[in-house]
Every structure is written in structure tokens, then in C-alpha cells.
């Protein structure tokens, strides 16, 4: 039986801010297929709270935003990429405003109300109260839905990129080109060919590889894993950012308590009610995230406590409720905490992948016709630690730059290349859900306990030995088994965990989010990216 094939000039894998912004920018230039492995709005973007950093006021400057970004990145940012991101930021915010994103304005002056977060020397963060991401996701999706050249595919799971390796029999030589992707449809449970002139990975992050994470379940690093299997260059996977304040709620997904609460005056306290972050860094609550997360981790371990408090109770109660309505509602409903009157129990949790698929300033990867943007990409802007609210900005700026690049390129869809159908000969429908679940839990707990906020050579080596076994076992199981989304996710998470540990083992120093107990200092000889 011949399966349905899908063809387009542009295939975008991912429907978050990076994928949808790019789709909207490209829609006048050709047919765009956008696929999402679950609901189109189940993205990291949708959960973003704090906002988007950009320079728009006279009291601020590009230089200041660049310096703050470089400082948070602990000498590993690519300065050219940071300059591009910061200087093109205001235009990209204007695109969102033109499309209808309703950023919060101050009641007094009707100017945009700019927030402050850790590591920023001034207030420069555009936000929609405390649900910035949901508003952006909604506006972008509505527009993409309306455009006749954009086709959106929900519940379509990209398995692997189609490369020379798959079509070599039909080509004269190997060219290191991407021709699209093999995609598993959860609707008909078949694997389809998505052929495309240009393929763009906008698959988001991978922080669900850790037991405790602020990310939705979809955040399993699929783009990085697919790129890795296709031989594409990956960088800096050791730098996983832990957010200092996720709601402590045993047994639940970790709901984020935005950094904007600390920007608004919130204070972190131990269970005796003592503020302690200033003991670790004079910038206190507004120091970069890696520092605040380590301070909390250290305090919790020293005092053998399960969480700390984030205290907003000294601030105007009404204003706190109005400024953070979603967080207020969530805490009241789920744990009966009124954030304006009670301290909030919080813990650090895995939040953001600073490394990823290496790209040029135009989003080009090391494979021809393959681009990457958003959290899955490594553009160089974050270095060893991302500055708060620079992620949505990076996704917007670099997806736009890809569109500018693609518009200068030859339009094509590779209809002259014979792409074989997905081959399932010999695979069995094994009902071994328990094995998948067990391995998944093992990876998450291994990563949290051995590869977390504080690492050591010994814990990393132990983790590496175990992950290698799981990785090999999963690959072997994958080769013999009929595709399911659970299996694909496990396979990708094993690959991501493997890359994070491998990269961490290569960096015998502490820098940004990578902290090694046995190498507590930064060293000049490690002033370079870790490339796989
Ligand atoms: P995402 O928005 O995560 O979208 C990924 C898309 O890829 C999804 O559609 C998914 O279905 C699809 N996908 C993945 N794998 C596959 C596959 N195999 N096949 C098909 N589709 C696939 N950053 C800020 O700058 N400011 C903030 O205030 C902020 N707050 C945050 C709060 C939370 C709780 C979290 C989790 C993150 C926050 N971040 C914030 C980070 C930021 O939200 C993300 O980095 C950003 O949204 C990533 O956008 P993206 O388009 O790259 O990916
Ligand atoms: C937050 O609101 O604290 C998240 C901001 C970010 O991840 O940049």
C-alpha cells in the first residue's frame, strides 16, 4: 500500500514561537507545512510567563542589554550573535504588536509596563501580565490558521530527518543534504514521508530529561536527537539551566513561579524565614539564575530542607494579585496558598537547554537545506547560562533571519529525488510499555541525581556508564519494534541524556550552569564550545 506523502517548499517541525513566526514570515514565498507532535499549542512557548527582553527606552541601551547577556553567559556567549539578537529585538517585538499581541501597559502613563528579572540591570521586559507565552501562542496560531499557504499538522511526530543515507541509491554522490523528514501520524499510526526543499527544526527544549522540570511533557529534545543521528553538529549540551523557583508541590508537574516575582520585590527565605541569597551573591534575588539556583540548592542541602520560601507578603496585596493573576489563581486553587498573604514554597527545577544544534547567524546548520531555531538551536547567544527572557527574543530574531535567508534561495521541493517509504519489515508490535516507562524513569532520576545543579567527575562517570547501557538497549529495542510516540520519546531522551553527560565530562571546570564540585573554578583553556 502506498502511503500518503506530503510535499512543500518548507517543512517546519514545531509550532511554538520559533516555528510559527518563521511560518508566517515564509507564507508568501511558498507552501509551508508545520507539524507538531501533540496539540499545536502544547509548547514551551505556551507556558512562558515572564516575557521578552528588549531595549526600547531612553534610560536603556543596546550596550547594556548586550553586557547583561554576556555577563550571565560567563564568557562563553558569541558576541556577534548577542549583538544581532539585541539590536534586532525591537523590530521583532513590533511585529508581535502589529499582529495583535497585547503587551501590558502601565495604568498611569499607558506606556508599556516593563518588568525586571535576574541579571538585567534595568526594567526591559515586555510581558502580558504573567501569561506572556499563552498570548503569543494564541495570536501566532490564529494567524497561521488563517493563511492559505500554511498547513498545520497536529499529532504528527517527526522520527528522523531524510538525508543522503536514505536516498543514496538514487543520487550520484553524497551531498550532506536534508530532504525532509519521516513523520509518524498518531491518527492513522503510519509513518509518512514529508518531502521538503528546506527543513527547519523548531522543536523546543529537552528539560524533561530531568526528573523535576518546569517544562511540559513534550519537551524531550527531539530536534537535537534527530540532528545528532543525522550527523549534524551539536554544541554545549552540558549547559542546562535550572530555574530557581518552581512551585514545591510533591507529586505534581512543577508549575513555574516566574522570576518576575523576584523582579517585583519577592524575597527568598529559608524555612526559619531568613533571607539568604545575598550571602552567596551581593545582587541577591536578582543575580543570574545559575547563582540563585545554587544558593537555594546549597541552603536546602545544608539545612536538610525540602524547599525554601518565596515571600511576597511585604508587598501591596492587591497589586500582587493584579500583576500575577495566573500564578495567584494556580497557587490558591492547587495548594491553598494566597501568594499575596502567604509565603510560596519553591524549589529549583530543570528549565532550559542552553546548548543545541549549532547554527550560523542565519540559522544554517552543518547540513545543507537544514535550519534550526528557537530552544533547539545553539546560536551562541546564551553561552554558559541564559539571561532571563532572552529565549523568546532569540527565537523571534533568529527565525526571522532564517526567513530572510530562505527568501534569497532557490525554491525547490526535491520532486526529482526518489525517497523510499518507511521500512517496517521485521518489526514486531511488542507490548512492552513497562520497559519504556521503566527506562524513562531511570533516565530522569539518573539525570536529576547525578547530572543536576551540582556535579562531580565521579557522579558524571557513573551516570555515563548507565546511560550508555540504556541508550544501546533502547536503540536495539527501537530497531525491532513498531513505532509509538512513547518509544520515540524514550529514544530521543536517551540520546539527549547521553549528549549532556558526554559534554559535561569534557568540561573539567565550573562555568555558568555547569558546576563541578571538584573543579569549582573557571579556566581559560575551557573558553570554547563543547562540540559533538
Ligand atoms: P516550543 O515552544 O517548545 O515548541 C516546540 C514545538 O516542537 C512544539 O510544537 C512541539 O510539539 C514540536 N515538536 C517537538 N518535537 C517534535 C517532533 N519530534 N515532531 C513534531 N513536532 C515536535 N523564555 C523567555 O524568554 N521568557 C519567559 O518568560 C519564559 N518563561 C518560561 C516559562 C516556562 C514554564 C518554560 C517551560 C519556559 C519559559 N521560557 C521563557 C523559555 C521559552 O518559553 C522557550 O525557550 C521557548 O518558548 C521555546 O520556543 P520554541 O519555539 O523553540 O519551542
Ligand atoms: C520566568 O518567568 O521566570 C521565566 C523567564 C525565562 O525563562 O526567561
Give structural notes.
The chain has three domains: 6-238 and 354-418, 3-Layer(bba) Sandwich (FAD/NAD(P)-binding domain); 243-351, Flavocytochrome C3, Chain A, domain 1; 430-526, Up-down Bundle (Methane Monooxygenase Hydroxylase, Chain G, domain 1). Strands 1, 2, 5, 6, 7, 8 and 15 form a seven-stranded mixed beta sheet that branches. A four-stranded antiparallel beta sheet has the order 10-13-12-11, with helices on one face. Helix 15 (457-480) runs antiparallel to helix 16. The longest helix has 24 residues, at 457-480. It contains 16 helices and 16 strands. It is globular, with a radius of gyration of 22 Å. It has helices at 17-26, 44-47, 62-72, 79-99, 132-146, 164-167, 222-229, 260-263, 277-280, 289-303, 317-323, 325-335, 391-407, 433-450, 457-480, 485-506, and strands at residues 6-13, 32-36, 52-53, 125-126, 150-154, 156-163, 178-185, 191-201, 234-235, 240-247, 267-269, 308-311, 344-353, 356-358, 370-372, 377-378. The protein starts with 5 loop residues before the first strand and ends in a 26-residue tail after the last helix. Helix content is 37%, strand content 16%. By secondary structure, the chain is α/β, with parallel strands linked by helices. It binds flavin-adenine dinucleotide and succinic acid (SIN). Flavin-adenine dinucleotide binds at residues 13-19, 35-38, 43-45, 47-52, 132-133, 157-158, 202-205, 214-215, 218, 222, 256, 352, 374-376, 389-392, 395.
